[in-house]
Amino acid sequence: MTFTHRHLLGIEHLRPEEIVTLLDRAEDYVDLNRAAEKHGDALAGLTQINMFFENSTRTQASFELAGKRLGADVMNMAMQASSITKGETLIDTAMTLNAMHPDLLVVRHPHSGAVDLLAQKVNCAVLNAGDGRHEHPTQALLDALTIRRAKGRLHRLSIAICGDIAHSRVARSNIILLGKMENRIRLIGPPTLMPSGISEFGVEVFDDMARGLEDVDVVMMLRLQRERMDGGFIPSEREYYHRFGLDADKLAHAKPDAIVMHPGPMNRGVEIDGTLADDINRSVIQDQVEMGVAVRMAAMDLLARNLRDVRGAA
Protein backbone atom coordinates (compact mmCIF):
# COMPACT_ATOMS: atom_id res chain seq x y z
CA MET A 1 0.00 0.00 0.00
CA THR A 2 1.52 3.29 -1.15
CA PHE A 3 0.49 6.01 1.28
CA THR A 4 2.94 7.03 3.97
CA HIS A 5 1.77 10.50 5.00
CA ARG A 6 1.07 11.55 8.57
CA HIS A 7 -1.39 14.27 7.53
CA LEU A 8 -3.54 15.12 4.51
CA LEU A 9 -2.96 18.86 4.13
CA GLY A 10 -3.12 19.18 0.35
CA ILE A 11 -2.73 17.45 -3.00
CA GLU A 12 0.57 19.16 -3.76
CA HIS A 13 2.70 16.63 -1.86
CA LEU A 14 0.90 13.49 -3.05
CA ARG A 15 2.45 11.32 -5.75
CA PRO A 16 0.22 9.88 -8.50
CA GLU A 17 0.51 6.37 -7.04
CA GLU A 18 -0.58 7.68 -3.63
CA ILE A 19 -3.63 9.27 -5.21
CA VAL A 20 -4.46 5.94 -6.86
CA THR A 21 -4.00 4.09 -3.55
CA LEU A 22 -6.45 6.41 -1.82
CA LEU A 23 -9.01 6.18 -4.62
CA ASP A 24 -8.75 2.39 -4.73
CA ARG A 25 -9.38 2.24 -0.98
CA ALA A 26 -12.34 4.57 -1.42
CA GLU A 27 -13.86 2.14 -3.93
CA ASP A 28 -14.11 -0.42 -1.13
CA TYR A 29 -15.97 2.10 0.98
CA VAL A 30 -18.40 2.92 -1.83
CA ASP A 31 -19.45 -0.74 -1.66
CA LEU A 32 -19.65 -0.63 2.15
CA ASN A 33 -21.79 2.51 2.10
CA ARG A 34 -24.24 0.86 -0.31
CA ALA A 35 -24.56 -2.27 1.82
CA ALA A 36 -27.33 -2.86 4.37
CA GLU A 37 -24.73 -2.90 7.17
CA LYS A 38 -22.63 0.22 6.75
CA HIS A 39 -20.14 -0.11 9.59
CA GLY A 40 -16.43 -0.92 9.60
CA ASP A 41 -13.84 -0.89 12.37
CA ALA A 42 -10.84 0.89 10.81
CA LEU A 43 -11.14 3.73 13.35
CA ALA A 44 -12.37 1.69 16.30
CA GLY A 45 -10.99 3.06 19.56
CA LEU A 46 -9.87 6.34 17.94
CA THR A 47 -11.17 9.86 18.58
CA GLN A 48 -11.99 12.25 15.73
CA ILE A 49 -12.51 15.96 16.35
CA ASN A 50 -14.07 18.14 13.65
CA MET A 51 -13.11 21.83 13.89
CA PHE A 52 -14.93 23.99 11.34
CA PHE A 53 -14.09 27.69 11.62
CA GLU A 54 -16.22 28.29 8.48
CA ASN A 55 -19.78 27.17 7.88
CA SER A 56 -20.12 23.87 6.09
CA THR A 57 -22.93 21.44 5.34
CA ARG A 58 -21.63 18.79 2.95
CA THR A 59 -18.04 18.54 4.12
CA GLN A 60 -18.72 18.49 7.85
CA ALA A 61 -21.61 16.03 7.56
CA SER A 62 -19.52 13.87 5.26
CA PHE A 63 -16.55 13.72 7.64
CA GLU A 64 -18.83 13.05 10.62
CA LEU A 65 -20.61 10.22 8.83
CA ALA A 66 -17.31 8.80 7.57
CA GLY A 67 -15.83 8.68 11.07
CA LYS A 68 -18.90 7.13 12.65
CA ARG A 69 -19.18 4.46 9.96
CA LEU A 70 -15.59 3.44 10.70
CA GLY A 71 -16.15 3.23 14.44
CA ALA A 72 -14.50 6.45 15.67
CA ASP A 73 -15.68 8.52 18.61
CA VAL A 74 -16.60 11.74 16.77
CA MET A 75 -16.86 15.17 18.34
CA ASN A 76 -17.95 18.29 16.46
CA MET A 77 -16.62 21.51 17.99
CA ALA A 78 -18.80 24.60 17.62
CA MET A 79 -15.98 27.00 16.78
CA GLN A 80 -18.29 30.03 16.63
CA ALA A 81 -18.90 29.48 20.36
CA SER A 82 -15.34 28.47 21.23
CA SER A 83 -12.60 30.31 23.13
CA ILE A 84 -11.33 31.60 19.76
CA THR A 85 -14.09 34.21 20.02
CA LYS A 86 -12.64 35.25 23.40
CA GLY A 87 -9.22 35.95 21.92
CA GLU A 88 -7.53 32.57 22.22
CA THR A 89 -5.00 31.94 19.44
CA LEU A 90 -5.17 29.01 17.06
CA ILE A 91 -1.95 27.62 18.55
CA ASP A 92 -3.36 27.77 22.10
CA THR A 93 -6.49 25.99 20.87
CA ALA A 94 -4.28 23.34 19.23
CA MET A 95 -2.30 22.83 22.44
CA THR A 96 -5.50 22.47 24.45
CA LEU A 97 -6.86 19.89 22.05
CA ASN A 98 -3.55 18.07 21.95
CA ALA A 99 -3.78 17.57 25.72
CA MET A 100 -7.03 15.65 25.13
CA HIS A 101 -5.14 13.10 22.98
CA PRO A 102 -7.27 13.05 19.82
CA ASP A 103 -6.24 10.76 16.98
CA LEU A 104 -7.74 12.55 13.97
CA LEU A 105 -8.32 16.28 13.63
CA VAL A 106 -10.45 17.57 10.73
CA VAL A 107 -10.06 21.33 10.24
CA ARG A 108 -11.64 23.96 8.01
CA HIS A 109 -10.28 27.48 8.40
CA PRO A 110 -10.74 30.77 6.50
CA HIS A 111 -6.99 31.52 6.35
CA SER A 112 -4.57 29.77 3.99
CA GLY A 113 -1.88 27.89 5.87
CA ALA A 114 -3.74 27.77 9.20
CA VAL A 115 -4.32 24.01 9.00
CA ASP A 116 -0.64 23.39 8.26
CA LEU A 117 0.34 25.51 11.27
CA LEU A 118 -2.01 23.57 13.48
CA ALA A 119 -0.63 20.24 12.21
CA GLN A 120 2.83 21.27 13.41
CA LYS A 121 1.55 21.63 16.99
CA VAL A 122 -0.38 18.40 17.56
CA ASN A 123 0.52 14.72 17.88
CA CYS A 124 -2.36 13.37 15.82
CA ALA A 125 -3.26 13.10 12.14
CA VAL A 126 -4.69 16.30 10.63
CA LEU A 127 -6.98 16.47 7.60
CA ASN A 128 -7.46 19.73 5.75
CA ALA A 129 -11.18 20.31 5.10
CA GLY A 130 -10.40 23.58 3.28
CA ASP A 131 -8.09 26.47 4.21
CA GLY A 132 -8.72 29.90 2.72
CA ARG A 133 -7.98 29.96 -1.00
CA HIS A 134 -5.24 27.37 -0.60
CA GLU A 135 -6.50 23.79 -0.88
CA HIS A 136 -9.43 21.43 -0.33
CA PRO A 137 -7.78 18.04 -0.89
CA THR A 138 -10.67 15.69 -0.14
CA GLN A 139 -12.90 17.60 -2.56
CA ALA A 140 -10.39 17.09 -5.36
CA LEU A 141 -10.07 13.41 -4.43
CA LEU A 142 -13.82 12.85 -4.45
CA ASP A 143 -14.03 14.66 -7.79
CA ALA A 144 -11.28 12.40 -9.11
CA LEU A 145 -13.13 9.29 -7.94
CA THR A 146 -16.35 10.53 -9.53
CA ILE A 147 -14.57 11.15 -12.84
CA ARG A 148 -12.79 7.78 -12.75
CA ARG A 149 -16.03 5.89 -12.13
CA ALA A 150 -17.92 7.81 -14.83
CA LYS A 151 -15.18 7.73 -17.47
CA GLY A 152 -13.38 4.50 -16.59
CA ARG A 153 -10.06 6.32 -16.23
CA LEU A 154 -8.42 9.37 -14.66
CA HIS A 155 -5.78 10.24 -17.23
CA ARG A 156 -5.61 11.91 -20.63
CA LEU A 157 -9.04 13.46 -20.37
CA SER A 158 -9.96 17.01 -21.38
CA ILE A 159 -11.43 18.75 -18.33
CA ALA A 160 -12.91 22.24 -18.13
CA ILE A 161 -13.10 24.04 -14.77
CA CYS A 162 -15.43 27.01 -15.11
CA GLY A 163 -16.28 30.10 -13.10
CA ASP A 164 -14.72 31.69 -10.03
CA ILE A 165 -11.20 30.27 -10.28
CA ALA A 166 -9.56 33.10 -8.34
CA HIS A 167 -11.32 32.46 -5.03
CA SER A 168 -11.61 28.68 -5.28
CA ARG A 169 -9.50 26.26 -3.25
CA VAL A 170 -11.47 23.50 -4.99
CA ALA A 171 -10.14 24.69 -8.34
CA ARG A 172 -6.57 24.84 -7.04
CA SER A 173 -6.64 21.31 -5.62
CA ASN A 174 -8.28 19.95 -8.77
CA ILE A 175 -5.77 21.66 -11.04
CA ILE A 176 -2.92 20.07 -9.08
CA LEU A 177 -4.47 16.59 -8.90
CA LEU A 178 -5.72 16.41 -12.48
CA GLY A 179 -2.39 17.75 -13.72
CA LYS A 180 -0.52 15.01 -11.86
CA MET A 181 -2.74 12.45 -13.62
CA GLU A 182 -1.82 13.77 -17.11
CA ASN A 183 -5.10 15.43 -18.00
CA ARG A 184 -5.60 18.45 -20.24
CA ILE A 185 -7.07 21.22 -18.10
CA ARG A 186 -8.97 24.24 -19.38
CA LEU A 187 -10.01 27.14 -17.16
CA ILE A 188 -12.98 29.19 -18.30
CA GLY A 189 -14.19 32.42 -16.71
CA PRO A 190 -14.04 36.20 -16.83
CA PRO A 191 -10.53 37.71 -16.51
CA THR A 192 -11.58 39.28 -13.19
CA LEU A 193 -12.04 35.79 -11.73
CA MET A 194 -8.72 34.37 -12.93
CA PRO A 195 -5.80 34.44 -10.47
CA SER A 196 -2.58 36.11 -11.53
CA GLY A 197 0.11 33.75 -12.78
CA ILE A 198 -2.40 31.02 -13.62
CA SER A 199 -0.58 30.16 -16.87
CA GLU A 200 2.29 28.80 -14.77
CA PHE A 201 0.05 25.88 -13.77
CA GLY A 202 0.19 24.37 -17.26
CA VAL A 203 -3.45 25.06 -18.10
CA GLU A 204 -5.30 26.67 -20.99
CA VAL A 205 -7.32 29.79 -20.17
CA PHE A 206 -10.50 30.90 -21.96
CA ASP A 207 -12.98 33.73 -21.43
CA ASP A 208 -15.51 32.22 -23.83
CA MET A 209 -17.57 29.15 -22.87
CA ALA A 210 -18.15 27.93 -26.43
CA ARG A 211 -14.43 27.82 -27.23
CA GLY A 212 -13.40 26.51 -23.85
CA LEU A 213 -15.92 23.66 -23.77
CA GLU A 214 -15.11 22.41 -27.27
CA ASP A 215 -14.84 18.57 -27.12
CA VAL A 216 -14.17 18.35 -23.37
CA ASP A 217 -14.94 15.15 -21.42
CA VAL A 218 -15.72 16.79 -18.08
CA VAL A 219 -17.35 20.14 -17.23
CA MET A 220 -16.72 21.23 -13.64
CA MET A 221 -18.66 24.31 -12.57
CA LEU A 222 -17.66 26.40 -9.54
CA ARG A 223 -19.68 28.48 -7.11
CA LEU A 224 -19.39 32.26 -7.18
CA GLN A 225 -17.76 32.89 -3.80
CA ARG A 226 -19.19 36.29 -2.96
CA GLU A 227 -18.02 36.01 0.66
CA ARG A 228 -14.42 36.17 -0.61
CA MET A 229 -15.03 39.05 -3.02
CA ASP A 230 -14.46 42.69 -2.16
CA GLY A 231 -15.35 44.68 -5.22
CA GLY A 232 -17.09 44.39 -8.58
CA PHE A 233 -15.79 41.12 -10.02
CA ILE A 234 -18.89 40.62 -12.19
CA PRO A 235 -21.35 43.19 -13.62
CA SER A 236 -24.44 41.25 -12.41
CA GLU A 237 -25.55 37.68 -11.75
CA ARG A 238 -27.84 37.86 -14.78
CA GLU A 239 -24.98 38.90 -17.06
CA TYR A 240 -22.70 36.29 -15.50
CA TYR A 241 -25.22 33.51 -16.19
CA HIS A 242 -25.67 34.71 -19.76
CA ARG A 243 -21.92 34.48 -20.45
CA PHE A 244 -20.59 31.82 -18.06
CA GLY A 245 -23.55 29.93 -16.60
CA LEU A 246 -23.84 26.37 -17.91
CA ASP A 247 -26.95 25.57 -19.92
CA ALA A 248 -27.83 23.05 -22.61
CA ASP A 249 -26.67 25.32 -25.45
CA LYS A 250 -23.22 25.81 -23.97
CA LEU A 251 -22.90 22.15 -22.98
CA ALA A 252 -23.58 21.17 -26.60
CA HIS A 253 -20.01 22.26 -27.43
CA ALA A 254 -18.61 19.51 -25.16
CA LYS A 255 -18.49 15.85 -26.11
CA PRO A 256 -21.91 14.16 -26.26
CA ASP A 257 -21.04 12.02 -23.24
CA ALA A 258 -19.42 14.82 -21.20
CA ILE A 259 -20.33 14.79 -17.52
CA VAL A 260 -21.32 17.85 -15.49
CA MET A 261 -19.95 18.47 -11.98
CA HIS A 262 -20.37 21.04 -9.21
CA PRO A 263 -18.85 20.93 -5.69
CA GLY A 264 -21.89 22.62 -4.14
CA PRO A 265 -23.64 24.51 -2.85
CA MET A 266 -25.08 25.52 -6.21
CA ASN A 267 -26.51 28.88 -7.18
CA ARG A 268 -29.09 27.68 -9.70
CA GLY A 269 -29.63 30.11 -12.53
CA VAL A 270 -26.28 31.77 -11.82
CA GLU A 271 -23.60 29.10 -12.36
CA ILE A 272 -25.76 26.35 -13.78
CA ASP A 273 -29.23 25.76 -15.18
CA GLY A 274 -31.32 23.89 -12.62
CA THR A 275 -32.73 21.43 -15.15
CA LEU A 276 -29.22 20.52 -16.29
CA ALA A 277 -28.02 20.10 -12.70
CA ASP A 278 -30.79 17.53 -12.16
CA ASP A 279 -30.30 15.68 -15.47
CA ILE A 280 -29.27 12.15 -14.41
CA ASN A 281 -27.89 11.48 -17.90
CA ARG A 282 -25.32 14.28 -17.69
CA SER A 283 -25.00 15.47 -14.10
CA VAL A 284 -22.91 13.55 -11.55
CA ILE A 285 -23.40 16.13 -8.78
CA GLN A 286 -25.17 13.68 -6.46
CA ASP A 287 -22.48 11.08 -7.19
CA GLN A 288 -19.92 13.60 -5.95
CA VAL A 289 -21.72 13.81 -2.62
CA GLU A 290 -21.77 10.01 -2.33
CA MET A 291 -18.09 9.71 -3.26
CA GLY A 292 -17.25 12.33 -0.64
CA VAL A 293 -18.14 10.00 2.23
CA ALA A 294 -16.15 7.13 0.72
CA VAL A 295 -13.07 9.26 0.03
CA ARG A 296 -13.05 10.69 3.55
CA MET A 297 -13.40 7.19 4.99
CA ALA A 298 -10.43 6.09 2.89
CA ALA A 299 -8.31 9.09 3.88
CA MET A 300 -8.93 8.61 7.59
CA ASP A 301 -8.38 4.85 7.30
CA LEU A 302 -4.96 5.29 5.65
CA LEU A 303 -3.87 8.03 8.07
CA ALA A 304 -5.00 5.95 11.05
CA ARG A 305 -2.91 2.99 9.85
CA ASN A 306 0.15 5.20 9.61
CA LEU A 307 -0.60 6.70 13.02
CA ARG A 308 -0.83 3.25 14.59
CA ASP A 309 2.42 2.21 12.90
CA VAL A 310 4.24 5.25 14.29
CA ARG A 311 2.87 4.74 17.77
CA GLY A 312 3.67 1.05 17.65
CA ALA A 313 7.28 1.80 16.72
CA ALA A 314 7.68 4.40 19.48
Could you characterize the architecture of this molecule?
With 314 residues, the chain is an alpha/beta fold. Helices cover 39% and strands 14% of the residues. It has 11 helices and 9 strands. The strands form 2 sheets. The protein has a 5-stranded parallel beta sheet with strand order 7-6-5-8-9. Strands 2-1-3-4 form a 4-stranded parallel beta sheet. Helix 6 links the parallel strand 5 and strand 6. The two termini are 21 Å apart. The mean pLDDT is 93.
List the keywords.
314 residues, alpha/beta, five-stranded parallel beta sheet, four-stranded parallel beta sheet, single chain, 39% helix
How is the secondary structure organized here?
Layout: H1 16-34, E1 47-52, H2 58-69, E2 73-77, H3 90-98, E3 104-109, H4 114-119, E4 125-131, H5 137-151, E5 158-162, H6 169-180, E6 184-188, E7 204-206, H7 209-212, E8 218-221, H8 237-244, H9 248-251, E9 259-261, H10 274-277, H11 285-313
Parallel strand pairs: 1-2, 1-3, 3-4, 5-6, 5-8, 6-7, 8-9
The main sheet comes to:
5 strands, parallel
Spatial order of the strands forming the largest sheet:
7-6-5-8-9
Choose one word for the global shape.
globular
Give me the Rg, rounded: 19 Å
- Share of helix, binned: 25-40%
Mean pLDDT: 93
Poorly predicted residue ranges:
none
Distance between the termini: 21 Å
- Elements, N to C (H/E): HEHEHEHEHEHEEHEHHEHH
Secondary structure category: alpha/beta
Percent of residues in β-strands = 5-15%
Helical run tally: 11
Number of strands: 9
